[in-house]
């Protein structure tokens, strides 16, 4: 009997150790989950907060850039904006015959998720300065992104200013959406300024009021689905480049989504060329 | 005997449960520590990384700002820079008769640590546009900061561009330190361009080369201790405002600390005034 009782103690001991180990493993896994969640979520003063970051649609921010004295300053400033944005991939298209080491080194040090593209713009024969670089990014998306991907494209000039709140508007985009842009088209805010049920009921337009969708490049976003539905749509050499591009994707003032048009969330700022003597 | 053996099993059970609970408590506490650490440290893509954030010297970023079309755009962009900087307090001094609701609302929404000051600049009788606003911030520090505080002041114009790395240079400041500034004084980089053992051995200067410390406002930081040693030092209405201020605090080209002078970490960028028709 004593032998069996001793065995019972041993078995009980082994069972306990087993249960304890399993319990510890479960706890560890759960706590790891918490750590992981917190890592991506809890930087309240530094990032946009989202409950479930990985389920957010990806934003492809497309930026054309060209060599000039203020280039790295502009890219530094813009990178500090997009560093706050989760689920963001930066498509930087250089106006150059090959990647410059200046921009390559800058991107490499940035820790951002990015793709460095390059193509030479044709400045002598056109109205729009950065046609090739913009179309290069569209080409890259059509070649490298799955048509079923839940992703949205947004064109971000390197000298513009973007409120972090604009990225929330971008992520609401189902097919194509718009919002007002500050200091554009001769106005304090150009674009939709009154909206109802997701549509614009009033637009603020001064320059070329006949445009189909009168909005600055910083004032719209398009879901990649639409790019695959209209596989040849691209930017053309027109002064109303944004409107013509949106029209070629099937958008007009009535069907473009306008969820928010109260405050300005993006500004068409421009930087002075510095006077350098050396 | 069987009774005692049963008791043994019970005692063993209780002991195991107790040990398990203690183990779980210890594990929980340790993991909490990890979580807490990670919260403040691991946002590698969004913040400067510092091992022990709370022991860092505080940075007082001092920004003069005035009403104009691009004001909120500039403040938005600058706020996105300083949002990445730990242990930072923003002293924003408005050039106004009272706090404007535009700036107050902006700061209130920003989640930053800030103090909103105001004073009217006297634009009609001087060279320097923002003399009163700058001195107002110095006055606030001398009145509200303990002389023993480990804090450093840095003047950040709202249209300039700041690499996040400049804040590492600022925090090295023992009494007063300097670094080169991009696109300033007619040069691609003005200020110390060769340094050795914490001192500048060569300066790059074009405009007014006779200045005692030839550096732009974005190119120096001063420990608050020094402000209390020289309690009357302030900005005066001089074109070489930075140099005269640094001189009044006891600095010259030889005793100002220069730890790093290889890359440009701050740029004197300027924004174009937009053409608005309305």
Automatic annotation (TrEMBL), chains A, B:
Membrane spanning stretches: 12-31
Positions of Mn(2+) binding: 159
Residues flagged as site, Interaction with galactose moiety of substrate glycoprotein: 190
Principal location listed in the UniProt entry: Golgi
Reactions the enzyme catalyzes: 3-O-(beta-D-galactosyl-(1->3)-beta-D-galactosyl-(1->4)-beta-D-xylosyl)-L-seryl-[protein] + UDP-alpha-D-glucuronate = 3-O-(beta-D-GlcA-(1->3)-beta-D-Gal-(1->3)-beta-D-Gal-(1->4)-beta-D-Xyl)-L-seryl-[protein] + UDP + H(+)
Cofactor: Mn(2+)
Pathway(s) this gene product operates in, as recorded in its UniProt entry: Protein modification; protein glycosylation
Compartment list: Golgi apparatus membrane; Membrane
Active site residues according to the UniProt entry: 242
GO biological process: carbohydrate metabolic process; chondroitin sulfate proteoglycan biosynthetic process; glycosaminoglycan biosynthetic process
GO molecular function: galactosylgalactosylxylosylprotein 3-beta-glucuronosyltransferase activity; metal ion binding
EC numbers: 2.4.1.135
Top-rank taxon, per record: Eukaryota
Cellular component GO terms, alphabetical: Golgi membrane
PANTHER family to which the protein is assigned, alphabetical: GALACTOSYLGALACTOSYLXYLOSYLPROTEIN 3-BETA-GLUCURONOSYLTRANSFERASE 3, GALACTOSYLGALACTOSYLXYLOSYLPROTEIN 3-BETA-GLUCURONOSYLTRANSFERASE BETA-1,3-GLUCURONYLTRANSFERASE
Subunit field text: Homodimer; disulfide-linked. Interacts with PXYLP1; the interaction increases the 2-phosphoxylose phosphatase activity of PXYLP1 during completion of linkage region formation in a B3GAT3-mediated manner.
Family: Belongs to the glycosyltransferase 43 family.
Protein name: Galactosylgalactosylxylosylprotein 3-beta-glucuronosyltransferase
Naturally occurring in which organism (per UniProt): Ciona savignyi
The organism's taxonomic lineage, starting at the top: Eukaryota, Metazoa, Chordata, Tunicata, Ascidiacea
